[in-house]
Amino acid sequence: MGALHRILHSLLGAAWKPERVCFSHAPPPTAAAHVRFFGCPVDFRCDLNGFVCATKALDVRLPKGDPVMARYAQQYLDSILEQVARHLGMDRRTVHRHLARDAETFSSIVDAVRAELAARYLTTTDRPLAEVADLLGFSGLSALSRWFSARFDCSASAWRAAHRGRMVPAR
């Protein structure tokens, strides 16, 4: 969590700060070092390890953003399932079975997150569609266009025009 905090701080700028940090483990005798490091309240015995932050904090354009790095990051995220499984102390296939029990797959979760982010980027920003494609981890604008049309039953530009300025949940 500390390394991820530093990475996010580096990417999003010195003004970025989570509203809260969550850890799944029990609290140490004193959390003073945690609070000092993260600069915000720290909760323990949570359902997951993660940061709580305003969505606007993540809508910052990255001045050092690089489409090649975005694709690399997507590949990394795709491979993270193996690490998630190890962290949970189970085999990757067991994680798949648990997801299947809830009628989910790793890909369906990625797709749902992509849909939510696509809706946010298209309704609340003026980002060019090519940049949205990069941010969502697509190989290019044409891949985004095919996915978006299949997911939302219209083109991204038509959807943007119809939903400009209001956040609508993805279907």
Architecture overview:
It is a single chain. Strand 1, helix 2 and strand 2 form a beta-alpha-beta unit. This protein has two domains: 2-58, no CATH class; 67-163, Arc Repressor Mutant, subunit A, CATH 1.10.10. By secondary structure, the protein is mostly helical. The longest helix is centred in the middle third of the chain and has 22 residues, at 67-88. It has helices at 2-12, 32-38, 67-88, 92-101, 106-124, 129-135, 141-152, 156-163; strands at residues 20-22, 42-43, 50-52. Helices cover 56% and strands 5% of the residues. A three-stranded mixed β-sheet has the order 2-1-3.
Protein topology:
Elements lengths: L1 H11 L7 E3 L9 H7 L3 E2 L6 E3 L14 H22 L3 H10 L4 H19 L4 H7 L5 H12 L3 H8 L8
Parallel strand pairs: 1-2
Antiparallel strand pairs: 1-3
Helix pairs in contact: 3-4
Percent helix, as a range, is: 55-70%
CATH topology of the largest domain: Arc Repressor Mutant, subunit A
Structure annotation, total helices:
8
Distance between the termini: 32 Å
Total separate domains: 2
Instruction: State the name of the first-level CATH class of the largest domain.
Output: Mainly Alpha
Secondary-structure element order, N to C? HEHEEHHHHHH
- What are the segments in which pLDDT stays under 50 over at least 5 consecutive residues? 167-171
Care to count the β-strands? 3
Tell me the overall shape: globular
CATH superfamily of the largest domain: Homeodomain-like
- The assigned CATH architecture of the largest domain is Orthogonal Bundle
Structural class: mainly alpha
Strand fraction band?
Answer: under 5%
How would you state the average pLDDT, rounded?
82
Strand order of the largest sheet: 2-1-3
Question: Biggest β-sheet: count, sense, barrel?
Answer: 3 strands, mixed
